[in-house]
Amino acid sequence: MSRWSGATVALGAVLLTLTACSVPPEAIAPTPGPNGDQVPSNLSTFYNQQLDWRNCGNADCAKVVVPLDYADPSGPTIELAIVRISAQGEPIGSLFVNPGGPGGSAVDYARAAEYAFGDAVRDSFDIIGLDPRGVGLSSPVSCFTDAQIDELNATSINVDDASELATLADEYAEVGELCAAKGGALIDHMSTVESARDLDIARSAVGDSTLNLLGKSYGSAIGAMYLRLFPMNLGRVVLDGVLPVDLDTVDVTRTQAEAFEVATADFIDDCVTQDDCPLDQNPKVAIKELRDLLSDLDRNPLPTKDPERELNGSLASYAVLSYLYFPQIDYPVLRKGLAKAINDGDGTKLLKMLDDRSSRSPDGEYLDNSTDAYFAVTCLDLPYEGSVDEAIALSEELVATAPTFGEGLGLGVLACKDWPAVGPPVPPLPQSTNAPVLIANPIHDPATPFVWAKRLHEQLPNSRLVSWDTHNHTAYFEGSSCVDEVVEIFLLTGDAPELTECVS
């Protein structure tokens, strides 16, 4: 899911110089790997490792050892958690899966295979979940205390003067400072490039000569990076809900803000047809009421059952945005939360909804490190390199084109300003791949807009594209038998039409 984003300059310059001068793994003479593929000789120990699988309930679990820094594979290492759900029938191979994030646990996703993948997939593949570096059980990165996450989520984006803007910029600057102080050396190595390299080692470690992958949302970014690095190692790769790896944070923010505005309008159009909608029956009036509510809450927060937490505009906006992803299950919940706030003056329901989506327990503990990992990955991959004034200009632009969330999303790029680490460059797209790639995307996806899927399809030789005319985040196993059939036939056979348009 997308969040609101949200070391000195000299140190950054040094890191850039060191990165440019280091020797990339692919420059080392290759040596045969355990599955017949060619691997850099200085990484052969990692590619040749034997996994110690142990039963862990409904699955087998192990650890994969990878270099902390691929430019120094003889240096420190980290362990990644990997889980295997054995095929119910005769397996034709492994299928790596990733649900997104950054910060989502692939281990948890794989262990929920019964609810996330069709019978044909579970019959034919060992489902493999590999938590990316720094995520979940894979040497988890840590940046914030629970109280600091609460404070970050509640940071007001209602900026009325220069003083409030300066306060906001200072609060966002603390994100990088906290990660640098607490995250250790891992902060320098949380990039999607490095996660894709880890995935290739894991692919070899489970005994596969090529990679089969279902990557959803941010998982598609790991897959897209993988095919840039290892275009000849592809098995059957599905990228579902495309998150681009070659755009900057301003481009990504602008496109997402406009897509969420479309999603907001869809929620309003649905809400006004429902008996429990707390908004005016006229959609134009209703959307203004929603925006006015979010704006007013920054000045006049609502009480909640937690005496130490009020519902301000930022928390309410975050809650509303978080429930625009999956209309079938999200819209009824969102109507109830808004009704409680509007009709009863009680922010408890909306705050609880946000806590549920943020993995915050009732006692204030965050049950995973998804917030820490989100910033550590996003700001390394997509640092904001503009000025505060340019962020203000972006915010003002987005207020015009995406008035519901534009201001917060535009100013949110400041959380990745002056990030205390520099990630590796994004490799170019390959001229060819050894196998086709299937791209799937709803046409009205708020978090991974369809324009990104269409763009990747046009850029990537030999790719296939399946679209779904609906409002939803990601496409596979989300309610479309048309999408599911195309994806599952592709995974089982490698075949798919160049273009498929699903309407239901």
What does this structure look like?
The protein is built from 19 helices and twelve strands. The protein has 504 residues and is α/β, with parallel strands linked by helices. It has two domains: 272 residues, Rossmann fold (3-Layer(aba) Sandwich); 203 residues, no CATH class. The strands form two sheets. It has a ten-stranded mixed β-sheet with strand order 3-4-5-7-6-8-9-10-11-12, with helices on both faces. Helix 11 packs across helix 12. It is globular. The N terminus is likely disordered.
Question: How are the secondary structure elements laid out?
Answer:
Elements: H1 9-21, E1 30-32, E2 38-40, H2 44-47, E3 54-55, E4 60-67, E5 77-85, E6 93-98, H3 106-111, H4 113-116, H5 119-124, E7 125-130, H6 146-153, H7 162-182, H8 192-205, E8 211-216, H9 218-229, E9 234-240, H10 249-271, H11 283-299, H12 313-322, H13 327-344, H14 348-358, H15 370-381, H16 388-401, H17 406-412, E10 437-444, H18 450-459, E11 463-471, H19 481-493, E12 499-502
Parallel strand pairs: 6-7, 6-8, 8-9, 9-10, 10-11, 11-12
Antiparallel strand pairs: 1-2, 3-4, 4-5, 5-7
Biggest sheet layout: 10 strands, mixed
- Please state the second-level CATH architecture of the largest domain: 3-Layer(aba) Sandwich
Instruction: Indicate the CATH topology of the largest domain.
Output: Rossmann fold
Whole-number average pLDDT?
92
Number of domains: 2
Uncertain ranges: 1-30
CATH superfamily annotation of the largest domain = Alpha/Beta hydrolase fold, catalytic domain
Helical amount among residues, as a percent range?
A: 40-55%
- Structure class: alpha/beta
Total beta-strand segments: 12
Strands side by side in the biggest sheet? 3-4-5-7-6-8-9-10-11-12
Individual helix count: 19
Which class of the largest domain in CATH terms? Alpha Beta
Strand content: 5-15%
Radius of gyration, in Å, reads 22 Å
